[in-house]
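Question: does this match?
>
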Amino acid sequence: MGPLRGLKVIELAGIGPAPMACMILADMGAEVVRIERGKTRPSTHKHDVSNRGKKSLVLDLKADKGKEILFELVAGADVLVEGFRPGVMEKLGFSPEACFAKNKKLIYGRMTGWGQTGPLAHTAGHDINYIAITGALHAVGRQGEKPVVPLNLFGDMGGGGMLLVSGILAALYESQTSEEGQVIDASMVDGAAQLMWMMHGFHANGRWNAEDRGSNLLDGAAHFYDTYETSDQRYIALGAIEPQFYRELIERAGFDAAEFSGEKQIDKSQWSEQKTRFAELFRQKTQEEWCDILEGTDACFSPVLNFLEAPGHEHNQARSTYIEVDGFMQPAPAPRFSRTESRVAHGQHDLGQDSALVLADFGYSEAEIEALRESGVIS
């Protein structure tokens, strides 16, 4: 089993980054119990990948007995994760202080967009809003055009879910010596800001124009770091930054070495003209033809695939980067461990499927569980 085998995690059901973080913990072997409050799930949750590997317990947290049960779970858990607006857990009666009174070593993970403090902390928002105030949204797009929305990768996933996982693991490590838990304030704004670390350094070094998107090395201005359309209306991606890789690209593609010399590569005044020529040349062959010529070399070349095509790529197949769960393809657990291999224990469980099992593990009898079901505390 995974490296987190034996870790017990309580997840208060939500959407986006907090469930993603708990999915990663479950993939790594943690026992994750997802506390769900509704008796039905929205139809949009039918294929919710983030629910894989988790147990589902439906619990009425407004009922006194429901609160008592959750506190019992907290007392035996290592981690609690919630993704509500600041103050919601306090209103429910499960503040950090109340939970620490039951379990002083509890790691209390809080996932929000704006953070637990600050003038925007209690306002609504989504990924696009959080990355907008960090400069991340402004930086993505073509020169002279409006910013491009990068899905919800910067805020929700990279700046949110991944940040929360790293915080949880760090807090667990620290608690081994302190014997105490703590609260993790994971904010998507903070996480998105961290993802922009390189751009801050480039700007300080005079190598990045923060005001003019699409004019820099990594934002599509350079002809050797961009995407190009092929003759079959598909696309290829280039990342030949280093001179030796750029030379290999030019040679293997059969382009005129004099026209695309090393001096012209680093001359930003040449980039626009060079990009026009690249566009003309790459449009002369299909994506597959360019793959035959360039893929697998040091030309820093890749075909641009959509996420349904990605599982069929030979490299992804060789590494089993995608797996089938619940009848459809999805990303496999990552990263890889040499001894304690991560895996998906099972697909998404039905709502409340594990209610009786979870309570039985905590010593509840069949009669007590049935009484809780009849009273509506669990379902």
User: Anything to note?
Assistant: The chain has 16 helices and eleven strands. Residues 131 and 229 are 29 Å apart (CA to CA). The longest strand covers residues 31-36. The radius of gyration is 25 Å.
